[in-house]
Amino acid sequence: MYKIMTPGPTQVRANVLAARARERTNPDLDSEFYDFYRETCQLISSLLHTRHESLILGGEGILGLEAACASLTEPGDRVLVIDNGVFGKGFADFVSLYGGEPILLTTDYRSPVDPEALRTFLKKDHNFKYATLVHCDTPSGVLNDLGKLCPILKEFGLLTVVDSVSASFGEAVRIDESGIDILCGGSQKVVSAPPGLTFVTLSPDALAAMNDRRTPIASFYANLQLFGDYYEKQWFPYTMPIHDIYGLRQALENIQNDPQILERHRLIAEATRTAIVSAGLDLFLTSGHSNTVTVVTVPEETTVSAILDRMKHHHGIMIAGSFDFLDGQVLRIGHMGENANRQDTTETLEALEETLSTLGVPLKTSITEVFHRSLASSELDF
Ligand SMILES: *Cc1c(COP(=O)(O)O)cnc(C)c1O
To answer: 312 — phi, psi (to 5°)?
Structure first.
């Protein structure tokens, strides 16, 4: 078994695994399960600071993104796809699949979307049904500022769809304050449950847009409208993966009982970045680092696969490379959720230090020592 220090899936706490092994009922027929499902959705909404309802869908994170686009897009709709990363750009595919016309606003992939650039763009053209935006674009780790960008989109009358699968709970999310109509999250990143579930929050405006469609939603599995009055009707569009939802509930309660979770992510991430930079390594981004993942440019002396192999086989630790335009270019350390603690991050950085030295990469300082020094003054106990 490896220690999983990847930016999803992350490590899962024993109480989450135990919750998944609980005796089950028939989730289609037992009214207690409808209560349990609804309470779990309400917990998601309250943790994300929204009065909007949430839905848990039986499928990986990608399902949430597709469901948002499937449910909102009608043939011919123009959709603004804000693109400063792989997932950002990827929204264009979902929009096209459902007959929409994606218009890309592409900005620098090494830094967050600049609110003023967005405003300038929208002043010229804001004839869009909705806009898509990624909170943390995980392949590069770039973090977009929802609190600044979403209100600008709302000023111009656009619905906002946000992919926060790899940021929610590790970075602040305030849905109502920011004006987020649909936020998509997933079970296997910061939430630290196993892969398998996605959740979405739905504003009244998003629901109204679905109700006002001229054409039916071109999907069954990705149709958010079908959940309309699941509780009153005691009916789900498909059988809910009950064990996954038991586990998700426990993972969310772990987050609820962890009031310092954002601070913990921030301290671990800052110390990691400081340690990487002092050693003379390069971070991929110029600014806008998410506190959930650190993305390091691969030193020229070696390769991603050499590093990942030694980390895995010599140290028993999994970190990740990346994909798309970053394939072979960067390493990613996922210090999110259960992974964001002093002990696991220390072991990972120790292993990385040994690995890089063995592979002939000169380091200016000890990664681990700087990491420790950076955390030394913090009073958090984690
Ligand atoms: C992980 C992730 C998803 C979901 O992808 P899956 O392959 O379904 O897990 C979506 N968006 C972002 C930004 C992610 O990091």
So the answer is: -75, -55
